[in-house]
Amino acid sequence: MRILILALVITSWSCKAQTETKIEPKLENIAWISGTWHGEAFGGKTEEIWSEPSAGSMMATFKLINNGKVTFYEIEIIREVENSLILQLKHFGSDLKGWETKDETIDFPLKEITPTKVVFEGMTFEKVNDKEMNVYVDIEENGTIETVKFNYIKQ
Q1: Is the pTM of this model over 0.90?
Q2: What range defines the domain where residue 51 resides?
Q3: In a domain, 9, yes or no
Q4: N or C: which end of the chain has fewer CB within 10 A?
Q5: Nearest-angstrom CA–CA distance, 65 and 44
Q6: What mean pLDDT is predicted for residues 26-42?
Q7: Tens digit of pLDDT for each residue in 95-132?
Q8: Domain with 134 in it: what CATH number?
């Protein structure tokens, strides 16, 4: 009986792996990220606006609002580099003063793309459907990494 259960588990993993076919690291393969997205995280409202791919990149702005006031902003880009993609971002306070130094970015190299996921080291975009996506971000605090889920609805 245990062998049968193990065989069924392995078969189901194998079938799932086959449906998650990896695709080429090209911006047109992740264009589904583009649009205006709204959600909730960190006890507030979130807004993230992604452009369509053009000139080898996509760009985004992010805003977190708590109690009717902006907590912080981000500027993000995904760009094509050496037959792959990289996501880079910078944080800004509500006064638009940068958190990172002038030449510093937070970089997330690409790990893989499937038809419904874009997996960077430390950040994953997951397409739920045409109007919903989840973004998972690994946040390190006091030496511990916590994955925060952002559920977004496209406006």
Answers
A1: no
A2: 26-154
A3: no
A4: N
A5: 5
A6: 97
A7: 999 999 999 999 999 999 999 999 999 999 999 999 99
A8: 2.40.128.20
